[in-house]
Each structure stands twice: as structure tokens, then as C-alpha cells.
User: Fold this.
Amino acid sequence: MNTKINIAGVEWKNPVTVASGTFGSGEEFSEYVDLNRLGAVTTKGVANVPWAGNPTPRVAEVYGGMMNAIGLQNPGVDVFCERDIPFLRKYDTKIIVNVCGHAPEEYLAVVERLADEPIDMMEINISCPNVNAGFLAFGQDARNVETLTAQIKKLAKQPVIMKLTPNVTDITEIARAAEAGGADAVSLINTLTGMKIDIHRRTFALANKTGGVSGPAIHPVAVRMVYQTAQAVKIPVIGMGGIATAEDAIEMILAGATAVAVGTANFADPQTAEKVVEGIEHYMEQYGIEDIHDLIGGVRE
Amino acid sequence: MKKKERAAVISQESLAAGIFSMWIRTDAAAEARPGQFISMYTEDGTKLLPRPISICEIDREGQALRVVYRVTGPDTGTEQFSRLGAGDGIWLVGPLGNGFPVEKAEEKRAFLMGGGIGVPPILELAKQMKCEKKQIVVGYRDEQTFLRDEFSRNGELYISTEDGSVGTKGNVMDAVRENHLDADIIYACGPTPMLRAIKDYAAGHGIECYISLEERMACGIGACLGCVCKSKEKDAHSNVHNKRVCKDGPVFLASEVEI
Assistant:
């Protein structure tokens, strides 16, 4: 049975990674998950300098999921390179570093700093608010996405994944812009912007008022967007959004995802990602699937 | 490798209005320390996140933990826990967090202070503590002074109630003043206003003080950065002025954190 996939020349042993921000930099979860079992580990977003993030409360539970507004707290790329990359290098898994910034210069500074680090891929989080473009997040404007992707590709020595926000009218337009800018892959979906109000206190549940909704509740939205995007671009799609089981992951693969990421479900059971890997293998055995590629985009009309 | 464990409920009882006590047979008892917590999960697929619940008592030989918790409302995760009985299964991860540095109280006069649903973790702390003078100061809303008998067997007990029905009327600091109590070291768990008052008192009197903080959590194991508190100095792990309540805490030296 072959579960190996290849994205931009990087071979993963299986199509399962974790969604950025739900797995730290792997160290905390390594007590619960054999990181060697994962196709790749995707780290929490890292910026050029340390970010303190938002005030608390930063998380709230919602029906079938949760909301977060962590605010991309991170220790900055220097500490990340000294501490977190060497830790992950001890495991037989691919390393995908998620990169965040407020403005193009900040993204580019991180990409440049990572160029000679022993990492396998970079994922660019373009759903942060962008101070240069007013109130739109970077990833909500196709021209911005194409320009930034092209700038990053000039500096990057590793394959570049652009991570797309679902908070747009047409995600395929943004995906095509990333492809036009030279992205090696796109990953989607990031969280859906939401709001929760505590009716007893009559306050917002999150200090930030709004937050990103994730978890099983958003899975059908993610499957739809992965399907549409896979139809629209030729580069590989990494699917995520509410994957809690191997069945959810296979659904995403059938919709057109070459690989998948487990996110919020890591909080419901820290071993979820490993269980998804095992479950995909069982499914392939059950249906006599020799090669995972026979499932990618394999949904029948 | 650690994992989410299917533990077994040994017994459950109601101690006061909305306050439940559950004994659980679990591997987590082997290494648990006072002040640590366990992540408890519901059976309800619409409620994904663990509920962090502090450990009230540890029975190492019996491989059991006791949790005493408040039901936060109808149809909540805690309400679902309250319906479990002997023989039912419960998913949990733990023990988690750092716990109270109980050994630092040796040969000292200690305050062990709890307020509201911050009272339960003080019990195991009191049971394990060896010190010169063990002064347990616990605050409740009213006459429903749960765990009172257990406390009175494990130290000098002082009670405050908001409505004055038992002990000192007011909060735990009012009980300290009314009884003219002194300490060389303080351990406390409770609502933030109470912890703030204790932190100020300790700072004013130059007393070593450890406080257990509470914050909304998601992962419970230090990865998601949902439950941070402000730290006085730049934290070595976060590289900013934030510490993780679930992993670096929940117990902090009061002078290290800003609350």
C-alpha cells in the first residue's frame, strides 16, 4: 500500500499534517503523538519579531467547535530557529514552518531568515489583518496575494504553501492568484470569522470580540472550498477545516486535497492526528486501495 | 507515551447546591500533586474542549482522584459530568500543570487560602503539607461550606462567608484580619479579585506567596496559547511577557505574574 504523497518535490510518508496553531511547535504534543507517524508537522505561525498576542479570554467553545483569537503570539523567528527547528529535526517527519506578518516586509524578513534553515516547506498565513491595505486581511485581495506570493518566491529556498482564508466571496479567485504568483501549493481553509456573546454577562466571549471559528461544525464548508479550489488550480491543495476523524480526512482527499491537516480535533484528543493516519490506512485496506493517489479528487458525480 | 484515558467513576455525590464531588479510578493518581488539574471530556460531540478541573484529593494506593467542581449551568459539560455515577466511564488527560510547591512550607507558618470553587485544591494541599502552623482560610458565599469537615481535620480552620452566615462576614482577607493571623508563606486558589487582594497583602508584608490562576483553556497541554497570563519578566518559553496557565502554571509565584 502506498500512502506517500509528493508536494513540490517534498515527499511525505503519508498525507497527514497538523493545522498551524493547534500543535505548538510539536514539543508539547510529542508526549502524546509519535511525530514520526505524521507526514509533516506544521508549526505555529512565526513572525520576524516576538508577538505578545491578544488579551484573554482568547478561546471559547461553540456548538461543534470553538473560536480563537490568540493573536498569533509567537517567540519570534530567532528563538524559533534556535529551539524549535532542532527539536523537530530529531523526528522522521517533514517540517512546515508557518509564517505570519502584518506587512510584506515582515513576511519577507521571516522567509529570508528561514532560507538556510533545515526545514522542508513554508506555509504563509495571509489571513492576518494587513496594516498596509487598510481593513482587508492580506488574503482577501487577489492582487495582494499574487504580489506577495511572487515576492516570497523570489526569496524562498523551500517550497511555498499559501494558506487561504475562507472569509472571501470566491476562494478560487484567491487560489488562482496564489498560483499565478508562483505558489507551490495552497492550504485551506483557515478559520471562519465569528462572534460569540455571553448573554449572562452581556459581554463578548472573546476579548478580541471576533475570533476564528474552527472544528467539526465548519467541515462541510471546508470540503466545499477544497473541492472548488482543486478544480480551479493545478497546484496541490492541502485540505483542512474540522477534520476530526479519518473519515473526515478521506472526504477531503476525495474532494481533491493531496494532503490534509488535523486542527481543532487535537484539543479534543491529543492523539487525533496519529489516529487519522491509522484510519486512512484501514480505509485503504478495507476498499483495496493500493495507492493514496487513487483517492485524491476521486469523488464521483 | 501519554494519552487520553478512559477512567472510571467510583462514586459521585452532591456537596452543596451545584457543587459535586466525584471519585475517579485513574492512572493519573500515580503522579498527581496538589494544585494540578485534569482535563475532563464530555461524551457530547458538540462539546469538543476539555474541562480543566482541579484535583481535590489524591488516593495513590487506591489509584483514585477526587474532583469537586461546580456545575456551570443547564446542558453544560459540567452538568453532564454531574449525571455520572459509579461504574460510568469518563475520558480524561492528566495530571496537568505544575501544582503547589508544598515542600516550601516546611517549618513555616502557612496560609492555605481558597475561595469559591478555588476551595477544593486546598484540601489535598492541606493533607500533604508539613509546616509549623497550618492555617486554612476558606471563603464561601453562604452556609453551604462544602469540605468543611475535611479541612477541620487537616489544620486550623477559618471560614469567611459573603453573607456572614458562617465565620467571618466578608472574604478570606477579612477572616485573616478578624482572627489576627500571620504567615510566612501563602498558598491560594480562587477568583481573581481574591487573588489580587492576597497578592497585594503578601507584597505589602514581604510574604512568599503562590497563587493558582484560572483561564479559559483549549488544549490544556501548553500548545495553543489560549490560556496565558501576563508575566512581570519576559518568559523564557514565550519570549514575551506571557506565561501559559495550563503548562507553566496554574500555580505561580504571585510576584511573577500580573493579575
About this structure: DSSP finds five helices and 16 strands in chain B.
